[in-house]
DNA sequence: CTCCAGGTTCCGG
DNA sequence: CCGGAACATGGA
């Protein structure tokens, strides 16, 4: 499926190295990278540069093909979840006006397969922070504690390992604008580095058991755990309820209902949005955010 | 200056 | 189970 192709026609930026082409139908690279599920990809030339684990990657979309750094074909195809059957997922969305409008707006947005720790850690730092702030903290942590990797002439940084963050001083973490989240991130890193919790071992568990495992980490509640389950653990049924989604639920699906508790909202989302509720959630989330402040530049 | 941001945790009804 | 409050930081 991945064939090496010399990018002879329109090289995006000669310093970023040779590219290979992947077939990518029903895929919107830009949407997938800027919708708030991942925070470190930066636009450059006609595409984006970022890391997938410890590997620096350039990615650029041209219609139905995705150009990626040569040698990263299978890595990128897995990360960008090009195998998710969107044409079979969309029909499982509820047929209501809000959901269908979000679908039209976000068509091609794919839920990525992010590295376990990287995703869990970034969402530990996400509490009570705007998306732009999360990106800033992620970038600061990478520069200070991450392994540098080259992408042609550019220098990128992998997300710091649990070991690197576990041995960091809390004051150094706070220097990355983490605030009270610094202690949570460091203690969680310690639990992973020491083997107290094995993230990989959670992969094979039933949803509720994987959720319970993640909840053992300090700074991880139900919302952050569901983000990790959805964006890293491939649990496409996970439905994180944040302030944006709660707003959508109350204004659209519980309009003029009084005294709707959190438990009632959660129970509703677990059945109403179907087996790919996580996809539905991300589409509603991104659509709601973009509708709220149209006109302003993203991030 | 005030308000709020992809929440979590602890505490009292 | 439910509602409140504290918790850091920065941008609108």
Describe this structure in words.
By secondary structure, this protein is an alpha+beta fold. The chain is 45% helix and 12% strand. The chain has a six-stranded antiparallel β-sheet with strand order 1-2-6-5-4-3, covered by helices on one side. A two-stranded antiparallel sheet has the order 7-8. The longest helix has 16 residues, at 277-292. It is globular and about 55 Å long. The chain starts with a strand and ends in a 7-residue tail after the last helix. The model is unreliable at 1-9 and 295-299 (pLDDT under 50). The structure holds a DNA duplex (13 and 12 nucleotides).
Properties at a glance:
two-stranded antiparallel ribbon, DNA-binding, 12% strand, six-stranded antiparallel beta sheet, single chain, disordered C terminus, disordered N terminus, 299 residues, globular, alpha+beta
Break the fold down into its secondary structure elements and pairings:
Elements lengths: L1 E2 L15 E5 L5 H6 L7 E3 L2 E6 L2 E8 L2 E5 L3 H7 L6 H4 L7 H10 L9 H9 L6 H15 L2 E4 L2 E4 L4 H5 L3 H5 L6 H13 L5 H4 L4 H8 L7 H10 L11 H11 L8 H11 L4 H16 L7
Helix pairs in contact: 4-15, 5-12, 11-12
The protein binds a DNA duplex (13 and 12 nucleotides) through helix 6, helix 9, helix 12 and helix 13.
Terminal residue distance: 34 Å
Low-confidence stretches: 1-9, 295-299
Global Rg? 19 Å
Helix content: 40-55%
Number of strands: 8
Count the DSSP helices. 15
Shape: globular
Largest sheet: 6 strands, antiparallel
Oligomer: single chain
Structural class by helix and strand composition: alpha+beta
- Widest beta sheet: strand line-up: 1-2-6-5-4-3
SSE pattern, N- to C-terminal: EEHEEEEHHHHHEEHHHHHHHHH
- Overall average pLDDT: 94
User: β content, as a range?
Assistant: 5-15%
């Amino acid at each position: 499926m991945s064939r090496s192709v010399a990018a002879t026609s329109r090289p995006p930026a000669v310093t970023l190295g040779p590219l290979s082409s992947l077939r990518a139908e029903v895929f919107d690279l830009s949407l997938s990278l800027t919708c708030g599920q991942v925070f470190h990809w930066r636009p450059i030339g006609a595409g984006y540069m970022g890391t997938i684990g410890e590997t620096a990657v350039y990615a650029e979309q041209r219609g139905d093909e995705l150009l990626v750094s040569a040698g990263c074909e299978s890595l990128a195809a897995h990360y960008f979840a090009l195998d998710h059957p969107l044409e079979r997922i969309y029909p499982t969305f509820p047929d209501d006006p809000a959901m269908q409008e979000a679908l039209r707006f976000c068509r091609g947005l794919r839920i990525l397969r992010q590295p376990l720790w990287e995703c869990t850690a970034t969402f530990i730092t996400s509490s009570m922070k705007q998306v732009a702030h999360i990106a800033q903290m992620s970038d600061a942590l990478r520069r200070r504690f991450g392994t540098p990797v080259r992408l042609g002439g550019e220098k990128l940084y992998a997300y710091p390992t649990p070991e690197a963050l576990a041995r960091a001083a809390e004051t150094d973490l706070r220097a990355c604008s983490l605030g009270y989240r610094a202690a949570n991130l460091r203690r969680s890193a310690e639990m992973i580095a020491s083997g107290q919790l094995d993230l990989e071992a959670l992969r094979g568990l039933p949803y509720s058991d994987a959720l319970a495992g993640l909840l053992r980490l300090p700074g991880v509640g139900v919302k952050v755990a569901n983000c990790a389950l959805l964006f890293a653990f491939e649990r496409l049924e996970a439905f994180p309820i944040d302030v944006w989604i709660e707003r959508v639920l109350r204004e659209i699906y519980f309009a003029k209902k009084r005294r709707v508790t959190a438990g009632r909202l959660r129970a509703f989302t677990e059945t109403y949005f179907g087996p790919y509720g996580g996809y539905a959630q991300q589409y509603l989330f991104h659509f709601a955010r973009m509708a709220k402040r149209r006109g302003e530049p993203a991030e």
